[in-house]
Prior knowledge:
By secondary structure, this protein is an alpha/beta fold. It has helices at residues 2-27, 38-52, 85-99, 176-179, and strands at 61-69, 103-104, 109-115, 120-123, 138-146, 150-159, 165-174, 184-187, 190-193. The chain has a domain at 38-173: Rossmann fold, CATH 3.40.50.10610. Helix content is 31%, strand content 30%. The strands form three sheets. The chain has a five-stranded mixed sheet with strand order 2-1-5-6-7. A two-stranded antiparallel sheet has the order 3-4.
Amino acid sequence: MRFLILVLVSLLAGCSTSAWLGSSAKQSPKQAPPMRSVHSYVGELATQLSQYSKPLKPGVSVAVTSFFKDNGLGADTLNNQGAGLSNQVQESFITYLTQMGLQVVEFRMQKAINLSDSADSVLSRDIEKLKDRHKFDLILTGSVSESINSYTIHARLIDMVNSKTMSAASISLPKETLWGTEQVQMRDGLLHRGQY
């Protein structure tokens, strides 16, 4: 009899433990996969560009420009478009193209290193501080189209001699890649509401 009671208590203890473990597993939220970065999306774009491009001559050089919003390409609307996504795309392309073996021309290079008390720099967008001339064979440029939930980045590799597009690629990246999943955010001085 004692043996039967001991077995019964053991079974009940095991059932309650497994029920408790099952309920705690159900209550813990599932971990969402880590959010992809803008850099990883640009890596896909760089791969697309290389797949659709004709083989390039050895030693070919390329310059990478900023990627502006496609509805704001007028000369008076380019100011302040470089912040955020535009700069991230440009910098990531410079990294990927260099890693792919292309000679990337850094046209933002100053004539001299600029020193201050807290930092030093050699890159600038001030024309007066830049080296006089740069020569490159290709230019990588593009634009960004905005929709409700995403940005589509369009990239083109263009021959500087004849202005012909050598290769083109596009990719769509969710806005939450940049802004996270907050429901209400302040961006560029404007209040934006996410989807509920």
